[in-house]
Amino acid sequence: MAGETQASRNAEGFIFLNAEDAGMASKEKKQIEYLEKHLDYRRPQQVLTLYERMLRERIFKTPVGMIYLKHLQDFLLGQGDIDPAKVPMIPINSPCIMVPHKRERPVRGGTMDREAQSGRKAWVRMSIILNVLLALAVIFMFALAITSNQPNILNYRTAILNEYAAWEQDLQEREQVIRDKERELKIIE
Fold this sequence. Notes:
rod-shaped; about 0% strand
């Protein structure tokens, strides 16, 4: 279904879940066209026999075929010489309402079985424990960053200013020593 386009799933006014179903609907449409060319509606008994055979052999499976079967059924029920009780109902072979799988989320307000409740409680408990551990790890990392002597994103400005201040202090001390030496040697520029 990943490579299918919506156009490949269209057939006879329906959008099917996959291209195979759409192809089956197109095939059924061709069968219906063939039947319509050869079916004699002036002989309702022949139509009833064909209708019963199509139901028994489950010829049609898509909505296209089901609509045609309904058309034949309505025709037969409208005939005065055919007993309506002898016209069988059209069986539907697939559910119309999807029954949720066990893995689907239950409806709010619905009751959950004990196993699902205990599993959910264990999941919540584990989630809380992991969140607390992660929060402690973040606090620990910030504490390390603040107390560290190495420059980092939190104290880089202060560390750089302190380093430049130490260099400046060192330079001033060296200049003072040089000036003192110059005075001793009486070298003055």
